[in-house]
Amino acid sequence: MRKYILTVDQGTTSTRALLLDKEGTCLFKAQRELPCLYPHPGHVEMDAEKIWISVVDVINELRILGGVSFKDIAVLAITNQRETTIVWDKNTGKPIYNAIVWQSRQSEEICNRYQEFTHLLQEKTGLRLNPYFSASKIRYILEHVPGAEEKAKRGELLFGTVDSWLIYNLTEGKKHLTDITNASRTMLFNIHTLSWDKQLCDLFQIPVCMLPEVKENATDFGIASFLDSDLHIYAVAGDQESALFGQCCFNKGESKNTYGTGCFMLMNTGSSPVTSKGGLLTTIAWKIQGEVTYALEGSVFIGGAIVQWLRDEMRWFKESMESEEYAERREEMKGIYFVPAFVGLGAPYWDDKVRGAIFGLTRGSDRHHITRAALQAIAYESKDVIELMKQEAGLDLPVLKVDGGASANGLLMQFQADILQTKVELPAMIETTALGVAYMAGLASGLFRDLEAIKKARKVSKVYVPSMSKEEVDSRYKGWKSAVAGARLFQSDDE
């Protein structure tokens, strides 16, 4: 009897596979770290074939750890880093260029060509003109690979975000598909008509024949015949939308923040899109059983990645989880602010040129103080987004649901509750990105009856309650704003 859900969570720094039971409990997990490539300042790329290999590796490891065969697995679900762009040859199945990662700024010059279309792009896609999204990345590849333009026009090239690339390989080239959440992050998809927009494709000179077919989230994406002749892919979703679903934010106003490589705050806005005037994104949260749910999103480019930088480049500790204990080794030195704008600033600033800076150092400052300031920076960046989101949606935020690797850091979560002056709720399973798409696959396959059944399966591990005074919060946040302003005075000319 098939009794398990296999979820693949393909992220920027690692690929994970989780084996869950029908109640959504994680039984086994396997993980592979993946390197990013930095060929030039501001450029971030990955080897697309290594992404695919890592998926095969973690699935095989998971089967060995769990002692299960594919005959035990009811459904396969996929969630992935969004916007990361892959173009491959239809005839060979090989990528023609490295995957350009969502963080990369290498298509900034291309975006500059389209400044006059900023309003049109936001109106149709809910997104801001920025190299963050896929359209300018596709154009970059077509312009920088010899012969690519002609091949694309002849229908010989295919584009996909990571989900499409994995579906294509899992189905052995039989399916070129994406889901509606990943499509909505390309800057080529109209979130009102729910289709690829020919005007935008023509604007970026991207042939529509390159684009995958778009499906709703909880449905059949084909048979993963590379693995097993009877294993269906029953759900696909972008990582942040999947996390929103995994946190059971099914009602309007419910919100979550994922602390991964970046930080991603999403608020469910119901069946109608809310257009932001202050730098937030309007996106599709999911489409299930024909009904579309929208969300407001704010993206912080550098979240947990700042801890990885302290670990890998500064070499202050060996494991990211050590950062909490490391920061606690000294009494807090107030007034130190770390602005981690390594690849610019996301919402609400959207400043690609600013670079990282540390303010307020004294002779007594040391690496422990800087580590604490780095952790606090993640909370400050998130507050920037959350305050704007509350204002634009016209909704309060009594509870913030959190997940992602850095949400396991108690110092960070308590400071987040303090600086927000709101409760922070940590689920028993912080892998909600993987959990959300597993829930979707369970709905599609009948393992879960409805949303109420999913809500009953969710468990809370800990609630952080604010303990800082409003006066202290106001003072600290004012200092953060001054630090951001100071960092923005220096503009990089990397390109």
Characterise this structure.
By secondary structure, the chain is of the alpha/beta class. The chain has a domain at 4-239: 2-Layer Sandwich (Nucleotidyltransferase, domain 5), CATH 3.30.420.40. 34% of the residues lie in helices and 22% in strands. It is built from 16 helices and 22 strands. It has helices spanning 48-66, 108-112, 118-125, 134-144, 148-153, 162-170, 180-183, 198-203, 239-246, 305-312, 323-327, 367-393, 410-420, 432-445, 451-457, 470-489, and strands at residues 4-10, 14-20, 26-33, 45-46, 73-80, 86-89, 99-100, 157-160, 177-179, 189-190, 195-196, 213-215, 233-238, 255-259, 263-270, 281-288, 291-300, 337-339, 357-359, 399-403, 423-427, 460-464. Strand 2 (14-20) and strand 3 form a beta hairpin. Helix 9 (239-246) crosses helix 14 (432-445) and helix 12 (367-393) crosses helix 13 (410-420).
